[in-house]
From TrEMBL:
It comes from the Eukaryota. It comes from Hevea brasiliensis (Para rubber tree). PANTHER family: EXPRESSED PROTEIN, F21O3.2 PROTEIN. This is UV-B-induced protein. It holds the Pfam family DUF760.
């Protein structure tokens, strides 16, 4: 039995926060661009790893039906590493997984040292005849490091997916046969397992709002087919990444505020502990959490009824109480690298093989089960992106997304 999804339902799901519905990305499918940089010859020093790209050995990601053939890449992911750091980590990911995080830390430190060194030389030569040259070198190094960091962030996200045994859906152009797309296995359970109950409840509502499929839908409903434009599907996917990012930010804020509002529960917080917690948080998150609370004393001496309300308030009710500023701060991507990564991944996933762009009028037939698989993957991608961004920014200063 076939159904049809309206464009209005796909593009503008009312359950998404307004800041998520608003397009952060200037274009979901921009023209592709290639930047070639000379491979660096440095090797890592803290481990025995060497930066060399080994021949591809295995295919670790494959989704779709039998006609969805693996690409020549060993990763078979939509976006392929382009920099030396990304290709090196791709090799480590496949051949020496136990050393992956060590290699990531080394690469980030190396990139930070490269960029800081170029900036230092720029300032030291500011009064010399070579000032313009060193300023230009610093700009190019900044750009080079940004592309490399995006590759590293992508590999970190891929590693997180591999930990739950979920391969990223490869390029859809390799999975569509006779305008029909099917993604199998669905991996719904694995993709839902990373979320708490409160978050999962909101994700299931999001899936129902976007594609009309409930969590307890029958097998017949799941495998019913519908027609959808690839462009609409790409917009839905990108919006779901932003929604997953928003939920991760909001849920952590909710957890921390509950800890502060109920100091005598499982986590005992006094004024000293709260100040230590505030210092240990990332700057943006610290402002987000503690800006919502007037002061520590008012939290610890608040009325009992308000504490009970906070204790029993679930995440959905908590988010619905956000004002416009708090909603925007939770939903906004913190770094330009995260913005670029979503844009490039979405373009690579939904673009065609010729020019990486979509034909706006291209319509495919797919099942609601496959649509749910894409939505759940996108939400998980956004959640992993939040974690990755926090980790990378602790080692390498990312560019702020204004």
């Amino acid at each position: 039995m076939d159904y049809s999804l309206s464009a209005r339902t796909i593009i503008s799901p009312h359950f998404l926060p307004s800041t998520v519905k608003s397009p952060y990305l200037p274009s979901i499918f921009p023209p592709p661009f290639n930047l070639n940089f000379a491979c660096r010859s440095q090797t890592t020093t803290s481990t025995s790893l060497r930066r060399e790209v080994r021949p591809p050995l295995v295919v670790v990601a494959k989704a779709g039906s039998s006609h969805c053939e693996p690409s020549s890449s060993s990763l078979n992911t939509p976006l392929e590493p382009r920099t030396a750091a990304g290709k090196f980590l791709s090799s480590v990911f496949q051949n020496q997984r136990e050393l992956f995080h060590v290699a990531v830390a080394d690469e980030l430190k190396l990139l930070a040292d490269d960029r800081d060194g170029a900036v230092s030389r720029m300032f030291l030569s500011s009064d010399s005849d070579e000032a313009f040259l060193h300023r230009r070198i610093a700009e190019l190094k900044e750009h080079e490091c940004q592309i490399a960091v995006e590759d590293i962030m992508y590999m970190l996200i891929l590693f997180k997916f591999s930990e739950i045994r979920v391969p990223l859906v490869p390029k859809l152009s390799s999975c569509i046969y006779n305008s029909r797309l099917e993604i199998w296995p669905s991996k719904d359970w694995e993709l839902e397992s990373i979320h708490s109950f409160d978050i999962l409840e909101m994700i299931r509502e999001h899936v129902f709002t976007v594609i009309g499929l409930r969590a307890n839908s029958s097998v017949t409903d799941c495998w019913a087919t519908t027609e959808i434009q690839l462009l609409q599907l790409g917009q839905m996917y990108a919006a779901s990444i932003l929604y997953g990012y928003f939920l991760k930010s909001a849920s952590l804020k909710h957890y921390l505020e509950r800890c502060l509002a109920v100091p005598h529960q499982d986590i005992h917080l006094n004024c000293r502990n709260v100040l230590q917690l505030q210092d240990s948080l990332p700057h943006d998150l610290s402002n987000l959490v503690f800006g919502h609370i007037s002061n520590v004393q008012s939290v610890s001496s608040g009325q009992g009824s308000s504490k009970q309300d906070c204790k029993h308030e679930n995440l959905k009710c908590y988010v619905m109480g956000f004002d416009a500023e708090t909603l925007q701060r939770c939903a906004k991507l913190k770094s330009k690298e995260a913005v670029n990564l979503i844009e490039k991944h979405s373009c690579a996933l939904f673009g065609n093989d010729k020019n990486g762009l979509l034909e706006n009028d291209e319509v495919i037939l797919t099942s609601f089960s496959s649509l749910r698989r894409l939505i759940l993957e996108a939400v998980a991608f956004g959640s992993f992106l939040w974690d990755t961004e926090e980790y990378v920014s602790s080692v390498f200063k990312l560019n702020e997304n204004y």
